[in-house]
Amino acid sequence: MSSSPVAAVIRPEVRALSAYHVPDAEGFLKLDAMENPFSLPAELQHALSEHLAAVAMNRYPAPAYTELKQHIRTQFKVPDDWPVVLGNGSDELISMLAVACAKPGAKILAPVPGFVMYAMSARLAGMEFVGVPLTSEFQLDAAAMIEAIRVHQPAIVYLAYPNNPTGALFDDNVMHDIISACTTSIVVVDEAYQPFAQKTWMERVSQYPQLVVMRTVSKLGLAGIRLGYMTGSPELMAEFEKVRPPYNINVLTEAAACFVLQHSDVLEQQAAELRKQRSLLATALAQIPGVQVYPSAANFLLIRVADAEQVFSKLLQHRILVKNVGKMHSLLENCLRITVSSHEENTRFLAAFAASI
């Protein structure tokens, strides 16, 4: 019997990783993944089904995705004539960025705690990841970031705006100073939660040649179709386009996005409702003794309790799934991340949480 080839051929850094774990949520109230709880109105669902039924699934997608990119430019105010690069979710864009920049010795830098895929993409591409701790208020440590950029000369710096898992919006002046310090680095402002922040760097992308603005339609209510996009200087986007897998956006995703983006008012109304529910949920949680609620510009709330493990376990008994982020970083000790949902689901969560705290 031949021995396993794992040790011989799989890179050690890959063997040392754990796979990205998504817990089984069957039968649970799922408040761990920042999904939009609202579906499309029935009449739009019916029209979408007819639209998708006409898609030629026997053909490859049109390689340039011209129509989809135009809808993205129009609905999301991408500067005129600036290139758009598409990804199968923003995760694929993050991977593409790493692949394009993975020179020997290259590094990726980001504040921590932050989105886990920044570090994961670095390791998968054979790059070093440098994490710079946030302040105790979950804001950027400007001096530490700028010094780390000077010392490490990273290929890519990620700034999530707002940040996951904290929900905080970083100070614009500090971000400007950090971006300006990146004279030989690409700076990616990740705006995955922009519909809930209502602030953006998109209109400033042309002011910084090193700046890339990246977004996803997942949090808007289209997580299932897996679509991300980014824009930046034509020179940068031309290079990233070279590492984009051909036909990476399938015809059903393309057709669904083109259709729904023509009805973006529905998505905007849903985002407005979630912003309203975020405020109500934050107020309700803050009134519970022993709960610290952090400011959030995203569609989730970060809270701190005395014993997050115990509260998390008790919520599971109530069939409610939130994200226990306490072990992600020392700054997040005893913290839970809770997706903001509909009024009905938030009410159910609050009742279970009050019984679990």
Task: Write a concise synopsis of the structure shown.
42% of the residues lie in helices and 15% in strands.
Describe the structure in your own words.
It is a single chain. With 357 residues, this protein is an alpha/beta fold. The chain has 15 helices and 13 strands. The strands form three sheets. The protein has a seven-stranded mixed β-sheet, with helices on both faces. Helix 3 packs antiparallel against helix 12 (251-261), helix 4 runs parallel beside helix 12 and helix 14 (308-317) packs across helix 15 (343-356). The protein is globular and about 55 Å long. The model has no long low-confidence stretch (mean pLDDT 95).
- Beta-strand content bin: 15-25%
Q: What share of the residues lie within helices?
A: 40-55%
The number of E-state strands comes to 13
Looking across the biggest beta sheet, what order are the strands in? 2-8-7-6-5-3-4
